[in-house]
């Protein structure tokens, strides 16, 4: 009797597994496309942040220096850092402006273009502000947050958790 119950239980288990795997077959055609979109989005994002990070080292160094309340560099050193940061911000702005959206992300073209435009404007705002004697990067950083929010919407629509652009480029 135990063998019969075991056989029936095993058969029911196999049928249940077959039924579960059968349901996913209905959307199987969309899964590879969605996966390709996620991959394209992640590759786009990583390429974008890598290109920014290749150009923004001096800018990040300056922003970290002015954020210090203790052990701040001397004014002459800050002035030198500020000039290098201004050049760095200009270079990043040019780099971001030349960003192309992969064709696999056409469904998100509008949002990505808006995010890239905001990102480019953020760095241009930083470059312009750093030409001043007493620069304030607050407005530029708000613009960077706007770009981050726009990219976050794209990540969510694609089924991904949003990344943090400021964290990925300001370190």
Automatic annotation (TrEMBL):
Protein name: Lipoprotein
Cleaved signal peptide residues: 1-21
Coiled coil: 127-157
Comp. bias intervals (Polar residues): 99-109
Location of the region described as Disordered in the Swiss-Prot/TrEMBL record: 83-109
KW Coiled coil (keyword) present: yes
Keywords carried by this UniProt record: Coiled coil, Signal
């Amino acid at each position: 009797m135990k063998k019969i119950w075991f056989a029936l239980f095993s058969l029911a288990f196999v049928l249940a597994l077959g039924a579960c795997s059968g349901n996913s077959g209905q959307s199987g055609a969309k899964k590879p496309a969605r996966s390709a979109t996620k991959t394209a989005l992640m590759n786009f994002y990583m390429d974008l942040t890598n290109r920014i990070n290749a150009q923004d080292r001096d800018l990040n160094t300056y922003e970290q220096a002015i954020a210090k309340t203790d052990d701040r560099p001397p004014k002459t050193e800050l002035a030198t850092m500020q000039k290098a940061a201004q050049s760095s911000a200009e270079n990043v702005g040019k780099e971001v402006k030349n960003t192309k959206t992969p064709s696999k992300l056409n469904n998100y073209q509008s949002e990505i273009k808006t995010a890239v435009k905001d990102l480019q404007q953020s760095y241009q705002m930083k470059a312009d502000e750093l030409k001043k004697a007493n620069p304030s990067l607050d407005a530029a950083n708000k613009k960077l947050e706007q770009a981050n929010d726009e990219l976050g919407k794209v990540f969510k629509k694609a089924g991904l958790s949003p990344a943090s652009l400021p964290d990925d480029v300001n370190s």
